[in-house]
Amino acid sequence: MACNAVMQYQTIISRNIGAQDVAVITVGAINGGTDNNVIPASVTIKVNLRWFNETVRTTLLVGITRINEGIAVSNGLSKEQYPTIKMKGKVYPLENDAQLTEKVNAALGQVVTPANIITDSPASMGSEDFQHLVKGNGKTVCNYIMVGVANPPAHAKAIEQGKKSSFFMHANNYLVDLAAIPLGTQIGATALLAVFKK
Amino acid sequence: MKNKITCLFAAIALSAFSLHAQPNKVKQLVYTDSSWLVEIFKDLHQNPELGFMEVRTSGIIANELKDLGYEVITGIGKTGVVGILKNGTGPMVMYRADMDCNSVKEITGLPYASTKIMKKEDGAETPVMHACGHDAHVTWMLGVAKIMMTLKKEWKGTLVFLAQSAEELLTGAQAMIDDKMYEKEVPVPDFLLGLHTSNRPLGKINNGIGVRMSGSDQLDVTFMALVVMDQDQKTEKIQL
User: Fold this and answer.
1) A149 vs B240, which has greater pLDDT?
2) Do the bridges between strand A42-51 and strand A24-31 make them parallel or antiparallel, or are there none, so unpaired?
């Protein structure tokens, strides 16, 4: 049943999410069992969703529930035995304030040159709870800055090999170049001083 | 002599990454502190801690911020730390760094690589490493805190450094709010600033306007074992 669910979840996006909308369903873990000849009492699937609006989010969650229950029905489970869903954490999309970001970028241009500040890349499918520190207070505006830390020769080599970068987020070869330590500090302090300036 | 060598090294490192900026005070201060910061970074990298378990990391942050002269509040949302400096009339600005690591076994082979195993909340053991750069985020914040204290005549307002627990669980920020951080002594900021490591090369910054990251949910789906008894055959069929 759990294996069926993992496969079927992937059809939620292809069948229900508009072609212009973006969403991700990742199954990061399937946990169950201890040995060859012991049937475990339960199996837990650990899921992560990514979305940009509440409509898409609802479609994903309704889809997961429907697939769970469909599998339960087709296996003749009684209602009490239906799969359970435990919601563990939710974050909203992260938004950079225009005025604040422009002010910070003007200052950071003096650190890395304006040409090295990318402002036109599409929103990423990464997620953060940074903005939740001030969410809905009607006062605070945010700026969240992505700072390159990859070793330049290693990055160039990766590109040469047809890869997108020398490492990825949450990967076992994640590597912050030591030269990024002072540079990131300089970027942080420069940005902060700019925010205090009128 | 050692300082001269450090400065020379810093100059070479800078030119190597084509940073054409004019020398300024911030840069001078940063590169004076460079070896101190790199030591902190290596130490944090070698000693990663999972969400809500960042006891050692938050202890280091609290001590450093106290030593620098910030008013420090600890234990917010379990392990969160806040350092405040009231420095005259001006905007209230919060600078945030997250502290937790990931359930990942490091393969970098670095001399300061993590070999640590931790117990997750469910009791399962897992290798852990900083695979999202939070060790750098914390180090940067401490470096920035030192510079802001040194340059406090050059800015006016209230500055809050916030070390956040459990970003990877997506619940650390909320835990700090639920712990009534803003009803205690933490001012609600006008501006919130944060830095995150990216896998772009050194010297590149990605900082666009508008929506930059997606919303996200984490959920666990649990299937119970279904036992079908076949009385005649005395066999069980179980589907998972």
Assistant:
1) A149
2) antiparallel
B196 in contact with chain A, both atoms CB, cutoff 8 A: yes
Does B161 touch chain A if contact means CB atoms closer than 8 Å? no
Cβ–Cβ gap B192/A130 under 8 Å: yes
**Given CB atoms, is A99 within the 8 Å cutoff of chain B?**
no
Task: Give the model's pLDDT for residue B232.
Answer: 56
When pLDDT is averaged across residues B129-142 and rounded to a whole number, the result is: 98
B83 contact A CB<8A? no
Instruction: Closest CB to A148: pick one of B38, B105, B200.
Output: B200
**A 114-173 residues inside an 8 A Cβ radius of B:** 116-121, 123-134, 137, 139-152, 155-156, 165-173
Residue B185 binned pLDDT confidence (cut-offs 50, 70, 90):
confident
Reported ipTM: 0.90
Q: What is the 3-state secondary structure (H, E, C) of chain B?
A: CHHHHHHHHHHHHHHHCCCCCCCCHHHHHHHHCHHHHHHHHHHHHHCCCCCCCCHHHHHHHHHHHHHHCCEEEEEECCCEEEEEEEECCCCEEEEEEECCCECCCCCCCCCCCCCCEEECCCCCEEECECCCCHHHHHHHHHHHHHHHHHCHHHCCEEEEEEEECCCCCCCHHHHHHHCCHHHCCCCCCCEEEEEEEEEEECCCEECCCEEEECEEEEEEEEEECEEEEECCCCEEEEEC
* Residue A8 touches partner B, C-beta closer than 8 Å: no
Return the pLDDT at B234.
Answer: 54
| pLDDT exceeds cutoff 60 at B5 | no
Select the residue of A140, A147, A182 nearest B197 (Cβ to Cβ): A147
Q: How far apart are CA A20 and CA B168, in angstroms?
A: 28
Is the pLDDT reported for residue B57 higher than 70? yes
For A29-57, how does the pLDDT look when each residue is reduced to its tens digit (9 = 90+)?
A: 999 999 998 888 899 999 999 999 999 99
| B11 shares contact with chain A (CB less than 8 Å) | no
Q: How far apart are CA A119 and CA A121, in angstroms?
A: 6
Crossing angle of helices B25-32 and A180-196, rounded to 10°: 140
* Among chain A residues, CA nearest to B136: A181
